[in-house]
Design goal:
The structure is a single chain. By secondary structure, the chain is mostly beta strands. Helices cover 5% and strands 49% of the residues. The protein contains four helices and 34 strands. The strands form seven sheets. Strands 20, 22, 23, 25, 30, 31, 32 and 34 form an eight-stranded antiparallel β-sheet that branches. It has a seven-stranded antiparallel β-sheet with strand order 21-24-33-26-27-28-29, with no helix packed on it. It is globular and about 70 Å long. The two termini are 34 Å apart.
């Protein structure tokens, strides 16, 4: 969730870093509202008085009702807007029936002020009880005036984070329950107590609330239970047993897919940051990795993935980090574009992802890839390409990426010791500033921006096997899909208007049915 970077060191450093991160005096950087056709972000208000505001998508809180997805999210405003705001990260919403066409509905739940728990609003979830919708969310206030105030309305002093909620009958007009604030119990971190996920647990016939917190310095998912959320009576059930050791397990949720339960969570502090999942036979756990140990279906650029189903198909919703300033040399920062993946149940209880059907169907005009150059030992016949990357690199360059498009084909590797690559912003000297590499020996796919690793996803390759792949490019976002098993979400500002390439080093790569498809 939004505050993850604030728990990296001592409490003193936390306070200083929090003030720096949310400062209202930082000079506003130039801003351009980039156009996207598939991966939406908030847009400028259409009319005076609208709660629509340009900005970016933070943690997504999906809900399916009335034949459409209601995609609540934390709204990250522009630097200029932040300078005059009393708080940050109010909850906004997209609506969509097909995950291709989105309606931006503007603000749903507002943030507070420096005198309220929810000066900054954090991740939560919505549940319907009777005829009432309850939206539980995180209230965050790290100001010294707030933390030092012994508010007589509560038994103890104020805390940096607490669980709050608002109610509605129609999902349009929301009323905050200002007298409610669920704070950490003894033994759990009062500073890191966030991301409530509330659902009715059919297995135990009670409501569960998952909360991300810490116990003895270790990240845990703490479960509260209630017979009826309307009573505001939440009792600790205990922490879940989750395989692995993390500083925090953020934005958790639980869904049942087929005969198994799946737990999803985000983490941003290990050497494999991103959205992870675990599997169990019961919601009570224990929550374990699948047999091969690979517990991710996308990399670091797809964060805080949560799941919703239309009754037949499950989807996971996250966001692609942007950079600030918005170019490939900018600093990777919080918030970006909404990314939707369709979840696929694989063998051995594993989960895979693929492009939603409507997104795939958006591309209808097939063209052959236009060769603009080559290097090393290569040959081509129609849509078939062979790149022999030994002893020297082999490469094909293709025409400029132009707007929203889809590249697709199949890859076969002769061995598992070399690498194959997709290059973007490919130059005359055959170098590319952004490269996605298939790395069989390391059992992963990784992306590099100017030689620095940005994101990666685990994947086990086999020599001689064909792997279908596609790259969905939209504005500065490019999402790679491989075999309906994994994705790799990327932010590539230099992609459009420049050539792209296929490369091979230390192996022979066969590429079949290579096509560029546009809308």
């Amino acid at each position: 969730m939004v505050y993850k970077k604030l728990i990296l060191a001592s409490s003193l450093v936390l306070t200083l870093f929090a003030c720096k991160k949310e400062s209202a005096t930082t000079a506003a950087l130039p801003y351009t509202d980039e156009k996207f056709n598939i991966y939406p972000k908030p847009t400028v208000a259409a009319s005076a008085g609208s709660t629509n505001r340009t900005g970016w998508v933070g943690d997504v809180m999906p809900y399916y009702v009335n034949n459409q997805f209601e995609l609540f999210f934390l709204h990250d405003a522009t630097d200029k807007a932040k300078q005059s705001s009393t708080g940050q990260h109010d909850i906004h919403k997209f609506s969509s029936k097909d995950l291709l066409n989105f309606s931006y509905d503007g603000q749903v739940i507002s943030y507070g002020t420096a005198a309220t728990q929810d000066q900054l609003v954090g991740t939560g979830s919505m549940v319907k009880v009777g005829d009432t919708y309850y939206f539980y969310y995180t209230g965050y206030n790290n100001t010294s005036s707030w933390l030092q105030n012994n508010n007589p309305a509560w038994a103890g002093g104020n805390s940096r984070e607490a669980v709050m909620y608002a109610t509605s009958k129609d999902m349009k007009s929301w009323t905050k329950k200002t007298s409610f604030a669920l704070r950490a119990s003894d033994g759990y971190s009062a500073s890191d107590f966030r991301d409530p996920y509330v659902f009715y647990n059919d297995e135990f016939k009670e409501y569960w609330m998952l909360v991300s917190t810490q116990q003895a310095g270790k990240g845990i998912i703490l479960v509260y239970k209630s017979a009826d959320p309307a009573t505001d009576n939440w009792q600790i059930r205990g922490p879940l047993t989750v395989e692995g050791n993390y500083l925090m397990l953020e934005c958790a949720d639980i869904v049942k897919i087929s005969d198994k339960y799946y737990l999803f969570f985000g983490e941003d502090w290990s050497n494999t940051p991103g959205t992870h999942y675990r599997v169990a036979n019961s919601t009570a756990g224990p929550w374990m990795k699948t047999a091969d140990g690979n517990d991710m279906f996308d990399g670091h650029q797809f964060y805080a993935g949560r799941v919703a189903s239309n009754g037949t198909t499950n989807y996971t919703f996250g966001w692609a980090h942007r950079r600030n300033p918005e170019n490939d040399n900018g600093t990777r920062t919080w918030g970006g574009n909404l990314i939707s993946h369709e979840l696929v149940k694989l063998s051995n209880d594993k989960l895979g992802v693929k492009s939603p059907a409507a997104v795939k169907g958006y591309f209808t005009k097939e063209t052959a890839a236009e060769i603009k150059g080559q290097a090393g030992t290569v040959k081509q016949a129609g849509t078939q390409y062979i790149l022999s990357g030994s002893p020297a690199m082999a490469l094909y360059k293709f025409g400029n990426m132009d707007g929203t498009s889809r590249i697709q084909g199949g890859l076969t590797f002769s061995n598992l010791t070399g690498t194959a690559s997709l290059g973007f912003n490919t130059k005359a000297d055959n170098t590319s500033s952004y490269v996605i590499k298939f790395e069989p020996a390391a059992k992963r796919i990784a992306a590099y921006n100017n030689g620095v690793e940005v994101t990666r996803v685990p994947f086990n390759f086999q020599a001689g096997k064909n792997y279908d792949f596609s790259v969905v490019a939209d504005g500065s976002v490019a999402v790679l899909y491989v075999n309906d098993e994994v994705a790799l979400t990327n932010r590539i500002y230099s992609m459009n208007g420049n050539m792209w390439s296929l490369g091979a080093e230390g192996m022979e790569v066969s590429v079949n049915n290579l096509k560029v498809i546009k809308h």
